[in-house]
Specification:
Length: 234
């Protein structure tokens, strides 16, 4: 393995076989946790959360974006593969298609039952999964603000829609919060990664790492608190 395998990243487990550690690293679990947190936020602000629907949507996002999108990113990157050859191209496509098949099948079932508007969000998310990770259209959509839209704003709105089948001005306004948080995360993450590879100033790199930890773990912790509070109020 070369240094670009990123096995020394803070979010990679320090235990277990190397392939297990690489797979966990590929999932970027703290950042995936942020995305899932935004799904939860969108559902909770409705004030009448159906937790079965919420759990299904969390599962859909974890499988489609947490696994599928990250595997796509590993083979779609125009630069060196960040996680090496954990999966070959054929295996990667099998995982991607399996994740999308499962997620879209389950999502369509719940959308037709409760929230047809969710279909449109699913189509947009699917577009960004390929356009962003495979840098299609000459990388036009491989930008921080498109990431913030697909990883922050849309998951929040999906959480709201699966409960209400509507998008309101208030939900659009509040979706700017996850948009901004996701934008900050990806922007800092890119700077952190660049510094980690190219800078000799380890203190600066460490400061960026601390910020990413606080942002991701803080977001996830807040979500757990909100979930706990919401169950008490039921």
């Amino acid at each position: 393995m070369n240094d670009d395998s990123r096995l020394n990243e803070w979010f990679v487990p320090k235990f277990g076989p190397q392939r297990f550690r690489m797979f966990c690293g590929m999932l970027f679990l703290p950042y995936t946790g942020m995305c899932i947190s935004f799904v939860v936020w969108g559902s909770l602000i409705t004030g009448s959360t159906d937790f079965e629907r919420l759990a299904i949507l969390v599962l859909i996002y974890f499988v489609a974006l947490g696994i599928g999108a990250h595997v796509a990113d590993n083979i779609g990157s125009k630069k060196i593969k960040p996680w090496g050859d954990l999966f070959n191209k054929r295996q990667s496509w099998i995982i991607i298609l399996a994740c999308l098949g499962f997620s879209y099948g389950l999502g369509l079932y719940y959308a037709l039952l409760f929230a047809p508007l969710l279909v449109f969000i699913g189509i947009i998310e699917g577009f960004f999964l390929f356009a962003y990770n495979f840098e299609l259209f000459k990388g036009m959509f491989h930008k921080n603000y498109w990431f913030a839209l697909s990883w922050g704003m849309l998951p929040f709105l999906a959480g709201f829609v699966i409960q209400t089948n509507t998008i309101t001005p208030v939900s659009l306004f509040l979706s700017l919060i996850p948009f901004i948080l996701s934008y900050i995360e990806i922007r800092i993450s890119r700077i952190y990664k660049y510094n980690k590879r190219n800078s000799s100033n380890s203190m600066v790199t460490y400061q960026y790492e601390i910020f990413l930890k606080l942002l991701s773990i803080g977001t996830i912790s807040l979500t757990l608190i909100l979930l706990f509070a919401s169950t008490i109020l039921l």
